[in-house]
Design a protein that fits this description.
Blueprint lengths: L1 H20 L2 E14 L5 E13 L2 E8 L6 E9 L2 E2 L8 E5 L4 E10 L2 E12 L2 E3 L4 E8 L2 E2 L3 E9 L11 E2 L5 E5 L2 E9 L5 E7 L10 H41 L23 H8 L4 H11 L3 E6 L6 E6 L8 H11 L8 E3 H10 L2 H13 L5 H37 L6 H25 L7 H22 L9 H4 L1 H6 L3 H10 L9 E2 L6 H17 L10 E2 L1 E5 L1
Parallel strand pairs: 1-12, 10-21, 11-22, 17-20
Antiparallel strand pairs: 1-2, 2-8, 3-7, 3-22, 4-5, 4-8, 6-7, 9-10, 10-16, 12-15, 13-16, 14-15, 17-18, 18-19
Helix pairs in contact: 2-9, 3-4, 3-10, 5-6, 5-7, 6-14, 8-9, 10-13, 13-14
Length: about 575
């Protein structure tokens, strides 16, 4: 065994230098750019990059030339260490792939720990643009994508005698030293970080460099003009769609409206449950809460459920036990037990509290459906209005989705039509965008309104008002704003508080009340720690069962990427 270990150590020692030697890095000592403006307005670009390769091996260098705000690139010539390379994909050759971007790749024999110079010369048509008061060269000399640092860059701008320079050339958003001479300007900058571009600007007297705007600029101006022309159409269609959708929605709402019958309103906040309905019904009518948790603690108070704290090395652990019921259970109560413990032929009658909450989350319909059936039989839930509410929500969600998809499709269609000068398609795209935007907003506000469309009967609405008042009262008690004269009500109202989403705050308030023991259905590990353990189980139950309810170079010509490998 020791011999095998020594062999492994020896092999690791032999392989480690190889792995370390395989690491490689590179950086540019210089990235110089010569920009020579021709008498006809063309621009001849010469890029010279001196790469320092550390480690290796390296076998290629690449440059991607972007067609951003230019007309054409031609007359490419690539060199390495002063030697012009022929086209090809083998070592000592340059590979040129047409497209946008235009890809140039220098291929060479594997090299390590060396310095090499790479030069690329090309001509650009349309690099000079027309501004309101100048002919301008705005050129991204260092591309925006380069995965290496650059120690220094010298950018030389040369221009013909006919070009009248208006001001000293400069780098946009970057400091540089500038030297000017007869028909030229030299700008030098240092310490360029990875993916940091450098943009040079030179302004000339209008008409001294080009007589007319480049093709790309003319097309951009026409696109802007055509795009602006269809904006009123899109806004008009959007407004009409909004008005039509809102009108239909209001008509549907009024058609299905149901006035409340007259009933005297109590001026007092209810301090006891408004009816003898199960706590889950009250939580459901109150609208915001956790009906399953209300039933859970109601069953515990009636002896059907028991919780015990069980020993565990870290934290607190609680086990939930199912006990025989001494009375018949309502369907939603039986549904809760079946969801948590399984049916009669299924799982055991004990499990961890967290596992019970997880099972309820997976089988919650076993509780929800019987509860709604009971509320319907009690005259609290209107199945027809529930169906209408469901259809209204489905319709508004559909409008929301159609509007979003149509808006995206319209924007894409408009962009394609604009970029390809298909001006007759822009009104179609604008109409689609207007309709889609209108549908989206109608759907958005419709979903919000649809959630307020009550499914309760008239009696259900009145009882919901009463239950919300009782929930507000218990909330005040939990916050200490109201006092329970009869402290035994803390235990009696526990299922309601839990159902209204107040379980954890109710338990903390419970602990502050002197002379209160823990409920009979809860057993802590020790009597001395029973109050703290009860608060812990309430917080844990509330948490578990709640989850079961539900930069400066913008606008410049040129650019692209550069790198090596």
């Amino acid at each position: 065994m020791l011999r095998k270990l020594l062999v492994l150590i020896l092999l690791f020692g032999l392989l480690l230098p190889t792995a370390t030697g395989a690491a490689k890095d590179y950086w540019a000592e210089r990235f110089d750019v010569d920009l020579e403006i021709q008498p006809d307005g063309a621009l001849v670009v010469t890029e010279t990059v001196v790469f320092r390769f550390e480690g290796g091996p390296f076998t290629y260098v690449f440059r991607d030339l972007a067609f951003t705000e230019i007309d054409e690139i031609d007359r490419l010539q690539a060199s390495m260490d002063g030697d012009v390379l022929p086209q090809g994909t083998g070592p000592g050759q340059v590979e040129i792939e047409a497209g946008d971007p235009l890809k140039v790749t220098w291929h060479f024999a594997p090299t390590s720990d060396s310095t090499h110079t790479f030069t690329l010369v090309y001509r650009v048509q349309g690099a000079i643009r027309q501004l309101d008061d100048a002919d301008a060269l705005i050129w991204r000399a260092i591309p925006e994508e380069h995965g290496y640092e650059i120690a220094s860059s010298t950018i030389t701008v040369r221009y013909p005698p006919s070009a009248s320079l208006l001001e000293e050339p400069k780098l946009l958003g970057r400091e540089a030293t500038v030297e000017t001479g007869d028909g030229m300007a030299v700008l030098t900058t240092l310490d360029i970080g990875e993916d940091e571009d450098v943009v040079v600007q030179a302004l000339f007297a209008p008409g001294s460099v080009i007589a007319s705007a480049p093709v790309w600029q003319v097309q951009a101006a026409e696109r802007s003009k055509q795009d602006r022309a269809v904006v009123p159409l899109a806004i008009g269609v959007w407004l009409l769609t909004m008005l039509a959708g809102a009108g239909l929605f209001v008509w549907y709402w009024r058609r299905n409206a149901r006035p409340k019958p007259p009933r005297p309103a109590s001026p007092f906040m209810p301090t006891e449950p408004p009816s003898e309905d199960p706590p889950a019904v009250g939580a459901k009518l109150a609208g915001a809460g956790n009906p399953p948790l209300a039933t859970f603690f109601d069953l515990a108070q009636r002896g059907v459920l028991r919780i015990e704290e069980t020993p565990q090395r870290w934290g607190r652990h609680f086990t939930l036990y199912r006990q025989p019921a001494s009375e018949s259970l309502k369907p939603h109560e039986q549904g809760l037990l079946d969801a948590v413990f399984g049916s009669k032929d299924g799982l055991s009658d004990s499990l961890s509290l967290s596992k019970g909450a997880s099972r309820l989350a997976s089988h919650k319909k076993q509780f929800d459906r019987p509860l709604e059936d009971e509320m319907e039989l009690a005259g609290l839930l209107d199945p027809q209005r529930k169906a209408q509410r469901s259809r209204l929500i489905a319709a508004t969600v559909l409008l929301l989705l159609l509007g979003g998809a149509g808006f995206g499709l319209g924007m894409i269609a408009g962009s394609v039509a604009s970029n390809n000068a298909q001006w007759n398609m822009l009104p179609v795209a604008a109409t689609l965008v207007g309709i889609a935007a209108g549908l989206f907003l109608v759907g958005f506000f419709g979903v919000i309104a649809a959630t307020t469309f009550t499914a309760w009967t008239s009696e259900g609405e009145w009882q919901a008002t009463d239950w919300k008042g009782f929930a507000a009262y218990l909330k005040d008690v939990a916050r200490g704003k109201q006092v329970l004269v009869d402290t035994t009500l803390f235990d009696r109202y526990l299922p309601y508080a839990a159902g209204f989403g107040l379980g954890d705050s109710w338990a903390k308030r419970y602990q502050k009340q002197s002379g209160l023991g823990v409920p009979a259905w809860f057993h802590a590990l020790t009597d001395d720690d029973s109050s703290a353990a009860f608060v812990a189980v309430m917080v844990a139950t509330h948490s578990s069962f709640s989850s079961s309810s539900g930069a400066g170079g913008g606008g410049a010509s040129g650019g692209g990427a550069s790198g090596a490998g």
